[in-house]
Design goal:
This protein is an alpha/beta fold and 346 residues long. It has 14 helices and 6 strands. Helix 1 runs antiparallel to helix 2 (32-45), helix 6 (176-188) packs antiparallel against helix 9 and helix 10 packs across helix 11.
């Protein structure tokens, strides 16, 4: 597997950053999370004046063999149809948010069970036309997993070369809440029943069936539960590619905007490989998918929003971006007490 050089941000600048934030013309701490985000952005960028440049949202798309077991209400054809919709129709959920907040949208074919024509604008990183059914065998080979990590990293390097220093990640893949539920269970030991939810809209009976199928897959698993083995056995190509992308973003000292349930399981896996990646992560929202709040608590992550969303695509991350933007504007645009000629008050 590709090796990354990821380090926690240097702490030397922390005192100066905190001093600047504390001496803005306001009571100390009165802007709450904005102050915390400004400090985090300054630490990541190692500057007293952090900046957000050319934000991108990258959607990794792939299909899952587990859909053969009817664990989703939606047919797998929705994966490729939505990929085209994002780039041709421009009317998807993620599209209006990217337009609203100035994000460049990238759609990556990590392993969709469809052959896109070369003129669609979709970035071709296809590993295979969908994973294998992990009820019976590993979803992917070790070589395929390594290729996903490498290709996810490649996409982020390309984006970074445009000047982007803040990146959100989304996904498109019917069946990927099933894979995420298994990653969550295996990597946190939270009982599987608490990890399994409705996905795209399963009924109570559908959720029960989904749980039974995933329990069967878990019972058949004979691996060592190491993070790489769990990723390989139960993962999706889009999920593993997102892990590689997150690790590359951290190595490049980019701010990472984490979306909902599936992307949270991806950064969970990334953090088990390189714990330092968490220093670069900002969690956009707590989704309405069963298990997400438990997962966020398990990794001590505090999301910015809780709007009952569960669409994926990076929508929760992009929706939360203005709060980060406000934090950066705060530290750069507010006067200090001295500049504003205001007596310091607490």
């Amino acid at each position: 597997m590709k090796h990354f050089r990821i380090y926690n941000p240097e702490e030397k600048i922390r005192e100066a950053l905190q001093y600047k934030i504390d001496n803005l013309a306001k009571p100390k701490g009165s802007l709450g999370r904005l102050e915390e985000l400004a400090l985090q952005a300054g630490l990541i960028q190692q500057t007293l004046s952090p900046a957000l440049q050319k934000p991108h949202n990258i959607i990794f798309a792939a299909d899952h063999g587990i859909t053969d077991e009817n664990v989703s209400i939606s047919p797998k054809e929705v994966t490729w149809q939505q990929c085209l919709h994002f780039l041709q129709g421009n009317g998807g959920g993620i599209n209006f948010l990217c337009r609203q907040h100035g994000f460049t949208l990238c759609v990556v074919d990590a392993g969709v069970d469809y052959n896109f024509s070369s003129d669609t604008g979709i970035m071709d990183m296809k590993v295979r036309r969908g994973t294998r059914n992990y009820v019976y065998e590993a979803a992917m080979t070790i070589e395929e997993m390594d290729l996903c990590i490498d290709r996810g990293a490649t996409i982020v390097r390309k984006v970074n070369e445009t000047g982007c220093n803040v990146v959100g990640f989304g996904e498109m893949g019917i069946g990927n809440t099933s894979s995420s539920s298994l990653w969550m269970n295996c990597l946190t030991n939270i009982p599987l029943l608490q990890c399994v939810g409705a996905g795209a809209g399963l009924s109570y009976d559908g959720i029960r069936h989904k749980y039974q199928i995933l329990k069967r897959a878990l019972d058949n698993y004979r691996g060592d539960r190491s993070v790489t083995d769990v990723m390989r056995y139960f993962g999706g190509y889009e999920m593993v590619m997102a892990v590689g992308a997150m690790l590359q973003a951290a190595e490049l000292k980019m701010i990472i905007l984490v979306d909902g349930f599936i992307m949270t399981t991806c950064i969970l896996a990334a953090s088990r490989l390189y714990p330092e990646v968490m220093s670069y992560a900002i969690f956009g929202h707590c989704s309405d998918e069963t298990g997400h709040s438990l997962l966020l608590n398990a990794i001590d992550a505090r999301p910015l929003l809780n709007l009952g969303m569960r669409l994926g695509e990076g929508t929760g991350a992009v929706c939360a971006y203005p709060i980060l933007d406000s934090a950066v504007r705060m530290i750069n645009e507010m006067n200090s007490f001295e500049e504003g000629k205001v007596i310091k008050y607490f």
